[in-house]
Amino acid sequence: MAQKQTILGRIAQLTRANVNALIDSAEDPQKMLDQMVRDFTANISDAEAAIAQTIGNLRLAEVDRDDDVAAVSEWGGKARAASAKADSLRGEGRTAEADRFDELAKVALKRQISFEQEVSAAAPQIAAQTEVVDKLKSGLSAMREKLVELRTKRDQLVARAAAAQAQARVQDAVGSIDVLDPTSELSRFEDRVRREEARVAGQAELQADSLDAQFASLDDLSADLDVEARLAALKSGSGSS
């Protein structure tokens, strides 16, 4: 019985565990929950073995009780048969034989009484064991529910931690490309593009200046040719009035 009480005590202690309070007080909740899952799994395994043994003992006691009940009925039948035989023989005047069958009936009745006492003695023990088994089964069911709760809490905690880490990585990535931050990669790239655009614009302006100069030199050349033509005309006399 002491072992059964110990099992019940362990089950009660484990099923009363406040998971949320333990999580709040733990330095590393995930590790704590992982350890609790391992402990609960081991304790459930131990409890199942102990409860199975207790149930086995109860079933053996019930079988013995049923055998005793059957023996009560059997020896009662034998007592009745022997008594009836004795009455029949006595009616025939065979007194000595009748007395012998009455003695057999008494022996049978003594056996019947003995088995009745066994049945009576077993009844409270079987009732007590049945109550213990019911409590153990109920406690084991509660432990299994607590284990499911622990696993759910652990999975939720792991998922929340992963989500928090992912969010932190996203925030870091967003921060690295802040367009308002002059030191960000995007700002530095934009500055390079602006400088390249300015360089190209400068080259275009230089090229435009060069074209204007070339066209201006063409105009000067045209004027010079006109002057030379007029001079030639003068010399030939065609240009005289």
Written account of the structure:
The protein is mostly helical. It folds into two domains: 2-162, Orthogonal Bundle (Helix Hairpins); 181-241. The protein contains five helices and no strands. It has helices at residues 2-15, 19-25, 29-91, 95-176, 185-236. 9% of the residues are buried. The model has no long low-confidence stretch (mean pLDDT 79).
Question: Concise description?
Answer:
This protein is mainly alpha-helical and 241 residues long.
Layout of helices and strands:
Elements (H helix, E strand, L loop, with lengths): L1 H14 L3 H7 L3 H63 L3 H82 L8 H52 L5
Please tally the helical runs, counting DSSP H or I stretches of 4 or more residues.
Answer: 5
Q: What is the CATH topology of the largest domain? A: Helix Hairpins
Total number of strands: 0
Reading off the top of the CATH hierarchy, the class of the largest domain is best stated as Mainly Alpha
- Describe the global form: rod-shaped
Biggest beta sheet attributes? none
Q: Give the termini distance in whole angstroms.
A: 153 Å
Feature tags:
mainly alpha; 241 residues; 2 domains; rod-shaped
